[in-house]
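Hi D.,

Good news: the full-assembly prediction came through. Inputs first.
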Amino acid sequence: MIQSKETGKWIGMHPIEGGGVTSAPGFKAAGIHAGFRKQPERLDMAIVEADELCVAAGVFTQNVFCAAPVTLCREHLGPGSAGTARAVVINSGVANAATGPRGLDDARQMAALTADAVGCATEDVLVASTGVIGQFLPMDKFAALPALHAAATAEGGHEAARAIMTTDTHPKECAFTFCQSKNPGAGAVFTVGGMAKGSGMIMPNMATMISVITTDFPLTPERAHEALVNAVNKSFNKVTVDGDTSTNDTCILLARSASTYDADTAKAGFDEFQVALDAVCQNLARQMAADGEGASKLVTVNVRGAATPEDADLAARTVANSPLVKTCIAGHDANWGRVAGALGRSGARFNQEDVDIDFMGMAVCRDGLAVGFDEDEALRRFEEPEIVIDCDLGAGSAETTVWTCDFTHEYISINGDYRS
Amino acid sequence: MIQSKETGKWIGMHPIEGGGVTSAPGFKAAGIHAGFRKQPERLDMAIVEADELCVAAGVFTQNVFCAAPVTLCREHLGPGSAGTARAVVINSGVANAATGPRGLDDARQMAALTADAVGCATEDVLVASTGVIGQFLPMDKFAALPALHAAATAEGGHEAARAIMTTDTHPKECAFTFCQSKNPGAGAVFTVGGMAKGSGMIMPNMATMISVITTDFPLTPERAHEALVNAVNKSFNKVTVDGDTSTNDTCILLARSASTYDADTAKAGFDEFQVALDAVCQNLARQMAADGEGASKLVTVNVRGAATPEDADLAARTVANSPLVKTCIAGHDANWGRVAGALGRSGARFNQEDVDIDFMGMAVCRDGLAVGFDEDEALRRFEEPEIVIDCDLGAGSAETTVWTCDFTHEYISINGDYRS
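Then the structure:
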């Protein structure tokens, strides 16, 4: 049982051990090696499909350099990126970004070939690509699409999650069930599950965040999009590895309820669905931050006492993106002066004499002044896999949380080495 | 002879070999070991003073966490940070930041003791500190102030420049003479010189940028402040090592013309003075960027074709602060996709199909698409100590330049290691 931050209600929600994008009834998936990558053991193409047409919603990169698959998804989902879809196909290795009109034709072809394999309309296929920018998709590799479709099973979520990995060190999956508490339909149990690939950079180019989430909860396209935007703003949009957002960021929600849509149940259970969707997205987002390139730690930055939500976000983001803060965490150094400096330049409005800062629950700054603390105890707490920084600006009641990772030598190696 | 960007006029301006903060007539300086640092060989206190009261202007950090010496300088310079001063005293090792009311009393005492040594009013002393945040100044060390004043000579600028260094690997100084071309006073030669310490971080805390610039050109306090703001906006404010601005950033201009002020000459030569002041500030700013912590290269980011100056600044700053861009430069990787990604998320308005990007004069992206280039030639050009990235957004006529450095393993080591 967990409590809804929004409503304060206690609702029945439980994680599914080993759950993922195929935990919800009616979904299957697969991941295979199609040849986008040289290494034969490396899975590089994934499909997530439903046994019927789904309500679908998408949230995409805001980057002006927007990749062809993102343009095609917006086109297929239609106005408001809220429509229907039957399948999502994803390749890793080539991002199909900065590829112009030919890239868009390739994405269109990728969708058409998938539609043929699955047996649905091309408009009901969504596509995503991740990998090198400025290269064209090797279209012959999509000859493997029928085999990919044939391989799709209700247990295939794990292979799909592995097939979309780039510099991720492990697949990212999770799923929750929740029990609707309100009539009509009280007691009905629904599932929300998903997979994601991390916000790390792929050699030789940029980060791509891709996530596919599925559910059997009944939604209209508009409600699906509303719920997804809410969840993404509280999860994926609160993750930063290095402040660089990609050309391909894509998050898709498939709700398998087109044929069984029930307006009353949908209305009665929407709040609970939102909480479950938030939980899935935040779980995946934290996995993403913890697996940032070269990361040795998940870093959680909590900002309280901000004058406005915008100020809270500015402050938390500036601390989370500060290379000075991220390097001192890698160095196990409770260096609150760097946090103070980042808060001070963030643009958030506050008075320095009102600021409190804690590292791992240890007070290090009170009223903007240094507080003596036990360095040995601090070093001990820095051994934890998650580092928590709490900042209270003493300027209001707005708060937020941003997740990031530390900056290590490994980060420089991964991103600084020659292309080859 | 160089050309004024502002007026297009050719003016007589020449660098002074080995010039610095004491190149202008009437100024002297010194740097000594007063004991703020443990290592006896390390200079840690500097003074720059004039033989008469000077017009003085200051530009200071915008960080909400503003250090005590900055507060005192604003107080002594008065409204608009434009007033008079006789001497500037600077210590390194302790930043006197986040030290509350006691810190401000200490800064006041630091100024009073300097005034006694120099023989001027306390209000005519400006102070700056750089070093560890959250520690109080060891006031007994200022017993060395009479010795510091006694040591000041017209050749002392070099020691002063060394005494303000923190993690800088070398002192930063330069000076130019310029010949006023317009009547009245045509043919008169003036000097502008300065020193700076870098925008690198001092263990265990934050960056401090400090610069003192001197001139014998006649200025009113208002004109001095106007010229300094103009120059800083085109130089120090265009440098970014890691996007972290400090609690102590201070830039002071002393114009030794209080007793010899000549309104006509001041008016006739102001444009030329501005060009010379810009040259001094940009020279010091480039030295600062090139000496960023762990830096192996100076990185110059030029943005052209922006819709507005704000867009140009946003775009250039976002590229210059991108860890992905900075690491690929450390790795000698002409990775234009990362530059494109940074431009795309910068908030600057443009269409991706209008964007051109060059690395070291080599076209790597045209109309938003990849352009084949000679990787071997690219690697050769990456051997240069300065890496130039040119971006044309094709959205207007605004342009700017930002200087930064690459991100190396050394950066992580310097900023990640334990305090000790």
